[in-house]
Structures are given as C-alpha cells and as structure tokens.
C-alpha cells in the first residue's frame, strides 16, 4: 500500500518543481500601454499617392512562409461575404478593392485608390454621385485585365440573399432602403446592374445615390468592392476559391483546418501603393486555442519561427511574455479601436440617474484585472475609442480607478435598484459578468445574471424587445471616423424591430438625432472635432452606456517573422509588409 | 452463424434509425437558427425570412427528416448516395467534411487502442499471475494513478514538457499517413501516449480483477490439481474465460472512441470527428450533426456486432440464441 | 458458536455461521488501504457537506474578491499564488477569489452531482437489469435494444445541444437560472446515458441466479413476481451493485470535470472543480500553485474513492481473496 501511494504522491514534487515557490513581489509596475496617441486620417487626392510600388520595408527579404494561427476558421473567403476581422485582413492578401488604407500601424492612415486611380471623385460636389477610374495594369490571377465591369459585377452579386454575410452599406445606399434585395433581383438579372450603378466604359465606374453619402470612399475600402469575373462566379461555392486580384492566390483550401496562399504572378507591384509580395506563401492554420498559439510561438521551433498569433497572447501567459526580456522584439502591442461598453437598454432603464449611478459605480481596474491586465485592455470613459480621428479625452462621471460606490448610492437615493445583466455564456464573459455583479452590488444595485447562448447573443440583444437591462457590448468602427460610430450606435431613428440594431442601447433622443444629421452634412475634414464634442454631450446628457475599455492587442510572432503590424482600423494583424527573415 | 449475423445487422440498422430520429428531433428543439449564421452584422427580420426560405427551412419537420434520410440512401441532386447533406456553415457537402476528418480520428484511435489494450490487458494479467509481488504493486499503483487522472490534465502536462519546454517533439500537427509516415507518427505520439496511459490503467484494473476471478473458478483448480503447469492452464483455459468481458468493454470503448475523442482532439489541436461534431452543434449545423452522429453510432453498432461474433469463437460456453 | 468472531484464523468453522455482510465488514476493517481510503473519502464528504460552516469559520465567502492583491497582469502577489495565513491556498488569478473556499464549495458541487448521478444510475440500471434478466423473452429483447440505442447515442453532443434549451424553457428571460437547476440537468443527463453499464451487469447476474434453487423454490411457493424480484434476487445482487455504485462515483467526478472542459459544466458563479482545473491548466507556467492545489485535490479525491471501491469489491467477493 505504501508503494501505491508513493507512486501517486511522486507526481506532486514534479508539479511543485515547476516553480510554485517563486515570489511575485509587489513592486513598481511599469506603465501601461499608451492608448491616448492621436490618430490621424486623410484622403489622398493626388493620384501619385495611389500609385505603386509601395515603399520597400527595411530589412525585408524575399522568400519563406508566414503562418498565421487562429482559433476559429475564417467563415467566408468570398469577398462580398466577408465581414469578420480575420476575413477582412486575410482578404488583403488575395483581393483588391476600389480604395485601400495606407497604414503606419501607429494610428495614421491615408485613404488611397487601390484598383481606382484616386479614392473617388465627387462629381457634383454633393456626395451623391461618385466616379472611379480603374487603373491600367490590374489583372486577375489568370492574367485577364480587371475592368469596371468586374467591380460592378461584384457589387451586383452582393444583392443576392444567398450570398449574405458582408457589409451592406453600398447596397443600401444604392437602393436607398435597407431591403435592398427587393429593389434588384440578382439571380434573374445577372447581366444587368442594380439601380444607381453604371459602367459608362471599361475603365469608369459610377455610383449615383439618392441621398448624400460623403463616406463612400471609406465604404469602398471594404472588400465588397472586390472584382469578380462573371464567368467564374460559382455562387455559394465561390467561397472555396475566389479568383485573386491581390499579391497572393488561394492554392489549397482545407475548410476549417488550413488555407494556403501562394504568390500571384499576375499582380503588378507598380499598380499597388500599399502591398508587398515578400514571402513565397502564407498559411492560415485554424483550431489552436490562444494558449496553444502562445506556447507554440514561444517555443519557436521549425515552421513556427515564421508564425504569428492572430488571437493574441492568452491572459494566462501574459506575465510570462511581458516578463521575458528575450521576447521584447517578438511582441507586437498596440491599442485597438475595439471599444467595449456596459450597454444599458435605454427602453427599460429610463431613469437618467440610474444610468449615471452605474457610471459612477463601475470598477474599471478590477474589470481589467479579470480580463488579464493592462496588456490586454485599457480603461476608457468616452464613447469613441482614442484611435478615432479628432478624439478628445473626458470623464463625465469620475469614478476613480476602482469606482465610487458612495456617489452611486447617493444618486440612487438610498434605494436598491434591481437590474438584469444578460451575458454570453463563454468562459471570459462568465468571469466578466460575475466581476460586474460583485462590483455593482457594492454600490446599491441588485444584479441578476442571465446566461445567453454565445452564438445567439448578438441576435437576441439586437431585438428591440429584448428582456434584459444591461449587456456587454462592443463596437469596432469600419473606418476611424465618428461617423461610423456615434450615429450608427445612438441614432434612435435606426431602431427596428430586430436585426440591425447596432449597439443595442435603444437610445432615441430627437434632439440628438438632429445633431447627427447636422454633423454628417459637414465636410469630412471638419467632422472630427464635432464628433468629439458630440461624444461628450451624449454622455453628459443621456449616459446611454457605461464605457468600459478598449482592447489592447498584445501578440507574439516567431523569431523569423518580420514586418507584421497591428492595423489602425480594426486592431488586428496586418500582412501587407510581412516578410520572413532569411 | 450467417443467420446470427443477419439478425444482428438488422437490429443494428434499426438502432441506427432510432438514433437518426432522436438526433433529428433533439436538434429541432434548439433555438439556434441556421439562417442567422449567414447574417451576422446587418440582418433584419424580413431578410432573414427570405434567407430561411432559400434554405428550405420552412418545410414541416417530418418532411425535412424524410428528405434528409432519402438523401442518405438514394442521394440528391449534385449529391450521390450516401448523401449526408450540405453544410451552409462549412460551405461543402457533409460527406466531404467527414471524409477529411475521419482519417484524423482513425489515426488517433486505432494505434492508441492497440497500445492500451496490449499494455492494459498484458499488465493486468501479468499482475494477476504475480499477485502480491512488487510488480503487482507497481502495476496497481500505475493503474490507479492513471484511472484517477484527467485526460486534459495529462495531455496539457505532456505538451508542456515535451513540446514547449524541452522541444523533444514538434507541435502535433496532423499529416496524413501516406504523405509522410514519420511526420504522421511524431505528431500523434503524444495523443497516443496520453490515451494509452489513461485507458490502459482502466484495462489493467479490469483484466486483473477478471483474471483473479477466473483463476479462482473450480475448473482452474481442477486443472491445477491434475498437475498442469500454471502457464499451460492460463494459456489453455483461463485466458479464454477471462477475456469475454474485456472484449465487450474493449469493443464498446473503441467503438465510442472512433466516434470522436473530443477531449484528446481539443487538447492537442486535431480536427477529428469529435471536434467537428461539437463545432457543428455550436453552429447549429444540422446536416453535419446528423452526418457525424450517424457515423459515430455506426461505429459503435458495428463494434458491438463484431464483439458478439467474437464471443462465440472465444467462449464456447456461450450459446447463441 | 464462537464468542470472539474477530479472530477468524482461530476458529475456521466459525466463519460459516457469520453472515456474508459481517464477514465482508471484517475483511474491510483489516485491509489498511481500505481503511485509509475510506477515511479520506469520508473526510472529503464531510468537508463537502459542511462547506457553509467551513466558510463561516474561515471568514471568507466564495464570491469575495481581493483584487488589490493582484498585480497588473491579474496574478496574485506573494509566494505560491498568494498563500498567506488568511488565504490558505492563495488567490485565483483574474477575479482574485480565495482558492481554498472555492475548492471546498467546488467539492460540494462535484460530490453532490457524482453521488446523485451514481445513485440514480444504479437505481435505474438495477430495475431494468432485473426485469430484463428475470423476465427474458421479448421484454429482455426490447430492453436490450433500448440499451444498444442509448449506447449508440453520443453523450457529449446531446448534452451540449440540450443544456441551454432546457434552461431557456424552464426559466424566463429575466430570471437567473440557479446553480441547482443545472445540477439537476447534469444529473439527469448522466442518468439518461449511464444506466446501461449497471443494467447489463445486473442482467448478467440475474441470468445466472434465476436458475438457482432458491428462486425456483420461491416461484413454486406461489410468490408474486415483485416478491421474487425484490425479496429474493435483489439481496443477492447487493455486492456487485454496491461495488458498481462506489466505483461510478469517481467516474462521475471525472465526467463532470470533462463537461467543464467543453464549457457545459457548471456556470459561474457556482464554484466547480472541473471549471477551476480546466482554467488553471492555462496558468501552468505562470501560476503553478493555481494548478497544484485543485489538481492534487481532485486526484486525491478520485484516488480515494477508487481505492475504497476496489477494497470494497475485494472484501465483498470472497473468491478474490486467496
């Protein structure tokens, strides 16, 4: 018997020897990531800025394979159906669009023409008619030239409901209604074009809207404007292997496991102001969870030397990564535009004082610790993330680092307020909501936690009559302007029965709605400061949500991977400068 | 024998039908709507309705079931029999998905099961024969600790030690056997060892107990009394009698494992049948769910039939009804 | 006959007058492994039952957070994950809850589910096994087929699919689902899939018992079916049933931990072993104490119950003692 127990007990020292006895001293904490850097954005009007080749990346070499590790697969490769961050950034490898962002990875972006010679001409200076000229020398992977007809075909097919999934800005603007598929039946009219879209000649594309949409050049940077050769359109099967117009083409697609991209020899760098073609191939591998990704890249063996982790360092390993000086040049850490809020259902919680009390009660420091610390999240008190053009910092309800329960209780007038917090039932959100419950209950609230299945969470909260009082919300603007944030999230006129209630705060203030219209009508370069003023006004007068944090991306790459950076628009790995050290 | 097999196969088919009906019924209790999977950010109710009509999700449930099952036997347009449906989540026919993931599961389970059976039963029997010795005690200790550990725990520790810290093995990445046998092997060594350790522990306990019980039977005592050596007695009489419950357990375990060792696959990052099935449930992808469940159940049913057929050859005491 | 039944070696003839239960008990008491594992198991059961009392005495509740003792990565300051006189097992990274009291309550959840599932499974399995084994014929055939179908159904997939709809069905959208409800759901799923082993085992035993004289005698004396099943057969099945029950407990502890691995175990804020261990594995390199404490505890827990079950089987089955 003694021997049996001995065998079992022998394992204990093994685990203990792994260093359970090191002392984590309370010392000076290094400063957190600087999220308050100023973001800038411009639209390049000079055609020279839209011409290639893109400037050489110092130290870059040709050859090698870059591997990107991601847990969940990319749901759509079809450019008209792509909308996830991974899909959007991956699509930069193999499809081009009308316009694209030149990005320095530090928050400074310039919109340039990609397939188009410039980011679009506002023909009548009223933002209702836009014209693009397609560059010479842009080709599909088989060598055939890309014409305006191909871009128009791409836009036309996005009207087909069986090809849903992608952004719907251009379709809705052309059809002048959210029910755009009722205005143009693609299935039966494959050779014609939707209303407002015309191709005067092979090199010219014209979009005519009923209402002014000054943001069209930005919307055109989404792969919805990627060209598709009509003859090769296989409908729902196009997802398997879209025809490439970018520097790489898809050579092997094992759905859900791995996608391989290799050089597209038909891509001409002289026509592309943003991208490069240094590595021989890119491989996306799916299935590894963030802990595995981090461990693999830290181990840095074999092909993993050219690998990068899409999902970022797992919270449980952050201290190991940040604490290892040898890893310093393999870490990429940037704040992102991903903005998280404790969204309040304004239809249910109608008392402004209660919403203000929530803002006073919130313990952002504890929340961030629950998430894994300051390397993964930075507290925010504004409605727009700091990376928005024109952002100004303010704190309408100063709660200190850990919240001000006394002030909150005072606002509640000494009563207890019952609220229901709906949360996604995955592990992170379970921990987050438990943390929030403990936090808010110290401030005079009684919180009921309600688990919602993670996969239907968004659909459920986007229903106007959803039964919850609060839920965690997040928003990543499609381009870094307040116009893609504030009216989208807080304009009450956009509220429908269900479906596209972005933000789900259900705030509807007519005075505010008028303000949105006013700012949207201003020229784009003047809007930045106005949105910042509006941001503060909304918080002070309506407090529709409790701003929590912006996501900080901290990720690692192998010792041979170079040129990777975090894109300033979506806050994820960008590959246009990637190379493998030889 | 032929008649027996026929009966068992018919019964097995009946079982599979029952499984298909229960699975289909169960998953229509799910509130998850496959149409919403296709409409992430900017969808509204009207468009959703139109998408649903496109996918044929508005037909009555029994009709959808019959359509699916007839597809399995006679096939559908663009989909020759056995047609397991088309997955809108993976954008490919289910049979293609399954064709890709089954080799992964087979590669994990079959060698691992050979290992655990050989190791477990061998260890258990030897330790029963050498009852009370040091060998016995060590074997019992091994099997008890194996039976008391968690699979993902062992897997995680092995990964940490062999792959990340000492870099003895590369990160397990599945390569088909025919492409590169060596890579196939090195990738699968850790899952094999983890499964072998945990399962052989169970089988060691089981076979040891079974051996001890059989050895105490009258006929064994008679054989020993007749003067036969222990080795002969074991070989000729004990093994046969002791092995039947082990065969049953092994058949069931291997059959179930073939249906997908979810935890092993998740721990080591393989995309096998189990992982695919779980993801299909999460995505509300009914055709893939049906396909994987039917296949997994088929494995179990076939394993049971094989086990029953083996019974007669092993143990003549069992009369076939 | 003998007045000192404790010393079996002295009077071999006396053994035949002792009841099998008493003999088994004596064998159990003499086996040192059984004693040790029995004491440990009993101790852990007591800890689980007395969780609220321990909480009061310890002074900290499972949901109390101590985030000021966490560094900027969310890891506890100090040695071994923050072990101090106040926090015997240190703190959880992230939320900063006390690990010791989390595990005491987690033990309660795990053992509660395991015991209840083992009990229900055994009851259902015994019932079906006896009926199938004794009655034979088409009843046996049907029960066998149902067993086959149950074995062929994939447990994990069904549990995953069924758990949330059930909760949504029983609780309104604004009502919190209490942890106890999910406990009941888990026990139900375990029972629905787990009765097969016991049923087969019992059926096998009944098949060999039913031709014995005492059963024939009972039948001949006109005993009704129920009486034969439960008054004659059942007591003779006691030993294998008891062993099956006690060995299924560690299996269910492991099974529930496995469900947490897939995210369908107990949800926050209910303390749960499986979830704690699963989460702690990620911290193996950065906070090994967080892995050590729950890992060793669950290992000891499962080991103790396994050892005790084995010892029980050895004690109850005189043939295995030679």
Summarize the structure.
The complex is a heterotrimer of chains A (582), B (321) and C (322). Chain A has 16 helices and 23 strands.
N-to-C span of chain B: 11 Å
Report the average pLDDT across residues of chain A. 88
Largest sheet of chain B: 2 strands, antiparallel
Described by the principal axes of the CA atoms, the overall outline of chain A is globular
SS-based class of chain A: alpha+beta
Helix content of chain A: 10-25%
Q: How much is the radius of gyration of chain B in Å? A: 24 Å
* Strand arrangement in the largest pleated sheet of chain B: 1-2
The main sheet of chain A orders its strands as 15-19-14-18-16-17
DSSP E strands of chain B, number: 2
- The secondary-structure class of chain B comes to mainly alpha
Mean pLDDT of chain B: 81
Task: Kindly list the characteristics that best describe this protein.
A: 582 residues; 24% helix; globular; B: 321 residues; mainly alpha; 13 helices
Question: Could you explain the architecture of this structure?
Answer:
Chain A is of the alpha+beta class and 582 residues long. Chain A is 24% helix and 21% strand. Chain A contains 16 helices and 23 strands. Chain A has helices at 2-9, 11-16, 85-94, 148-157, 169-175, 216-219, 290-299, 318-322, 352-361, 364-371, 405-412, 427-441, 457-461, 486-490, 510-520, 524-541; strands at 23-24, 40-43, 65-70, 99-103, 108-113, 121-122, 129-133, 197-201, 204-208, 248-254, 258-263, 281-286, 307-309, 331-344, 377-379, 417-424, 445-452, 470-475, 545-556, 561-562, 565-566, 573-574, 579-580. In chain A, helix 9 (352-361) runs antiparallel to helix 11, helix 10 runs antiparallel to helix 12 and helix 15 packs antiparallel against helix 16. The relative contact order of chain A is 0.16. The model of chain A is unreliable at 1-13 (pLDDT under 50). Chain B has helices at 2-27, 34-37, 45-55, 61-74, 94-129, 134-147, 151-165, 181-215, 218-225, 230-258, 262-268, 273-283, 286-314; strands at residues 86-87, 92-93. In chain B, strand 1 (86-87) and strand 2 form a beta hairpin. Chain B starts with a helix and ends in a 7-residue tail after the last helix. The relative contact order of chain B is 0.14. Chain C is mainly alpha-helical and 322 residues long. Chain C contains 12 helices and 1 strand. Chain C has helices at 12-15, 20-30, 32-49, 51-58, 99-135, 137-152, 155-170, 179-209, 213-220, 225-261, 273-282, 288-316; one strand at 78-79. Chain C is globular, with a radius of gyration of 24 Å.
């Amino acid at each position: 018997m003694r021997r049996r127990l001995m065998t079992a007990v022998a394992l204990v020292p093994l685990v203990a020897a792994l260093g359970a006895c090191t002392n984590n001293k309370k010392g000076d904490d290094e400063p957190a990531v600087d999220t308050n850097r100023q973001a800038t954005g411009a639209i390049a009007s000079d055609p020279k800025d839209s011409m290639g080749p893109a400037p050489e990346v110092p130290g870059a070499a040709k050859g090698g394979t870059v591997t990107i590790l991601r847990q969940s697969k990319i749901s759509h490769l079809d450019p008209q159906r792509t909308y996830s961050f991974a899909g959007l950034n991956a699509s930069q490898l193999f499809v081009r669009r009308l316009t694209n962002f030149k990005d320095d990875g530090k928050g400074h972006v310039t919109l340039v023409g990609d397939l188009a010679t410039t980011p679009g001409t506002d023909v009548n200076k009223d933002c209702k008619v836009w014209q693009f000229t397609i560059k010479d020398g842009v080709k599909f992977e088989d060598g055939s030239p890309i014409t305006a007809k191909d871009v128009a075909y791409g836009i036309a097919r996005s009207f087909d409901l069986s090809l849903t999934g992608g952004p719907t800005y251009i379709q809705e603007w052309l059809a002048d209604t959210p029910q755009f598929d009722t205005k143009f039946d693609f299935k039966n009219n494959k050779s014609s074009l939707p209303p407002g879209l015309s191709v005067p000649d092979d090199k010219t594309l014209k979009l005519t809207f009923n209402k002014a949409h000054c943001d069209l050049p930005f919307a055109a940077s989404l792969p919805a404007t990627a060209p598709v050769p009509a003859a090769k359109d296989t409908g729902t099967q196009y997802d398997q292997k879209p025809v490439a117009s970018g520097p790489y083409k898809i050579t092997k697609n094992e759905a859900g496991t791995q996608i391989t991209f290799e050089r597209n020899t038909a891509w001409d760098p002289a026509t592309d102001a943003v991208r490069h073609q240094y590595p021989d191939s890119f491989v996306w591998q799916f299935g590894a969870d963030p802990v595995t990704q981090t461990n693999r890249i830290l181990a840095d063996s074999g092909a993993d030397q050219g690998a990068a982790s899409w999902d970022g360092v797992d919270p449980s390993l952050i201290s190991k990564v940040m604490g290892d000086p040898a890893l310093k040049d393999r870490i990429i850490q940037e704040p992102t535009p991903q903005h998280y809020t404790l969204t309040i259902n304004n239809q249910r919680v109608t008392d402004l004082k209660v919403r203000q009390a929530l803002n006073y009660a919130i313990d952002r420091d504890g929340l961030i610790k629950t998430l894994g610390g300051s390397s993964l999240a930075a507290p925010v008190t504004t409605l727009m993330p700091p990376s928005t053009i024109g952002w100004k910092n303010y704190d309408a309800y100063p709660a200190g680092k850990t919240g001000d329960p006394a002030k909150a209780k005072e606002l509640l007038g000494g009563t207890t307020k019952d609220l229901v917090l709906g949360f996604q039932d995955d592990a992170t959100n379970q921990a987050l909501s438990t943390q929030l419950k403990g936090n808010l209950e110290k401030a005079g609230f009684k919180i009921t936690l309600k688990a919602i299945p993670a996969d239907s969470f968004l659909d459920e909260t986007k229903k106007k009559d959803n039964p919850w009082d609060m839920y965690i919300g997040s928003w990543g603007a499609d381009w870094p302007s307040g116009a893609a944030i504030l009216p989208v999230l807080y304009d009450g006129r956009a509220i429908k029965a269900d479906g596209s209630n972005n933000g789900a705060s259900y705030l509807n203030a007519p005075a505010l709605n008028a303000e949105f219209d006013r700012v949207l009508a201003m020229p784009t370069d003047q809007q930045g400061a106005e949105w910042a003023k509006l941001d503060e006004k909304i918080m002070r007068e309506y407090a529709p949500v409790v701003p929590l944090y912006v996501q900080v991306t901290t990720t690692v790459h192998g010792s041979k991977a170079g040129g990777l950076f975090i894109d300033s628009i979506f806050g994820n790995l960008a590959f246009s400068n990637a190379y493998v050290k030889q | 024998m032929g008649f027996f097999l026929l009966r068992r196969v018919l019964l097995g088919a009946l079982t599979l039908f029952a499984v298909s009906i229960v699975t289909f019924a169960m998953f229509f209790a799910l509130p998850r709507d496959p149409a919403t999977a296709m409409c992430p950010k900017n969808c509204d109710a009207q468009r959703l309705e139109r998408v649903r009509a496109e996918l044929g999700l508005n037909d009555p449930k029994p009709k959808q079931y019959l359509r699916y099952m007839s597809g399995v036997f006679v096939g559908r347009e663009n989909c020759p029999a056995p047609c397991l449906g088309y997955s809108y989540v993976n954008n490919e026919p289910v049979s293609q998905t399954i064709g890709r993931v089954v080799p992964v599961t087979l590669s994990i389970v079959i060698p691992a099961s050979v290992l655990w059976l050989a190791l477990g039963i061998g260890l258990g029997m030897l330790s029963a024969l050498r009852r009370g010795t040091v060998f016995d005690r060590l074997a019992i200790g091994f099997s008890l600790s194996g039976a008391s550990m968690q699979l993902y725990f062992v897997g995680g520790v092995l990964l940490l030690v062999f792959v990340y810290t000492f870099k003895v093995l590369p990160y397990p990445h599945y390569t088909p056997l025919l492409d590169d046998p060596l890579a196939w092997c090195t990738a699968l060594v850790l899952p094999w060892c983890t499964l072998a350790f945990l399962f052989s522990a169970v089988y060691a306990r089981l076979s040891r107990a079974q051996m001890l019980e059989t050895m105490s039977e009258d006929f064994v005592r008679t054989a020993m009394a007749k003067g036969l050596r222990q080795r002969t007695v074991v070989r000729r009489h004990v093994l046969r009698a002791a092995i039947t419950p082990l065969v049953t357990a092994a058949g069931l375990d291997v059959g179930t494992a073939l249906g997908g060792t979810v935890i092993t696959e998740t721990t080591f990052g393989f995309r096998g049948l189990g992982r695919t099935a779980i993801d299909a449930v999460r995505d509300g992808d009914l055709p893939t769910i049906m396909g994987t469940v039917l296949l997994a159940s088929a494995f179990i049913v076939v394993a049971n039939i094989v086990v029953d057929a083996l019974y007669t050859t092993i143990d003549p005491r069992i009369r076939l009804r | 006959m003998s007045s000192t039944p404790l010393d079996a070696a002295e009077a071999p003839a006396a053994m035949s007058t002792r009841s099998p239960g008493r003999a088994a008990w004596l064998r159990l008491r003499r086996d040192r492994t059984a004693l040790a594992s029995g004491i440990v198991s009993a101790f852990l059961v007591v800890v689980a039952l007395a969780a609220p009392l321990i909480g009061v005495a310890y002074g900290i509740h499972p949901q109390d957070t101590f985030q000021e003792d966490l560094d900027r990565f969310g890891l506890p300051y100090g040695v071994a994950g923050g072990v101090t006189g106040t926090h015997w097992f240190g703190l959880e990274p992230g939320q900063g809850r006390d690990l010791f009291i989390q595990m005491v309550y987690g033990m309660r959840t795990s053992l509660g589910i395991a015991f209840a599932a083992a009990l229900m499974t055994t009851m259902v399995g015994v019932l079906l096994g006896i009926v199938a084994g004794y009655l034979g014929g088409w009843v046996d055939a049907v029960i066998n087929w149902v067993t086959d179908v149950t074995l062929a159904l994939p447990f994990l997939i069904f549990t995953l699919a069924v758990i949330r709809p059930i909760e949504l069905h029983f609780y309104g959208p604004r009502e919190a689902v209490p942890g106890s409800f999910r406990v009941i759901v888990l026990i139900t799923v375990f029972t629905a899939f787990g009765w097969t082993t016991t049923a087969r085992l019992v059926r096998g035993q009944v098949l060999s018992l039913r031709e014995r004289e005492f059963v024939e005698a009972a039948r001949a004396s006109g005993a009704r079916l129920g009486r034969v099943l439960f008054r004659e057969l059942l007591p003779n099945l006691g030993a294998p049933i008891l062993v099956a029950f006690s060995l299924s407990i560690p299996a269910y502890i492991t099974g529930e931990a496995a469900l947490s691995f897939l995210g369908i175990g107990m949800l926050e804020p209910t303390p749960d072993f499986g979830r704690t261990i699963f989460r702690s594995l990620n911290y193996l390199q950065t906070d090994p104490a967080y892995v050590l404490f729950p890992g060793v505890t669950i290992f000891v827990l499962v080991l103790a119950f396994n050892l005790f079950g084995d010892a029980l089987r050895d004690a109850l089955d005189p043939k295995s003692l030679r």
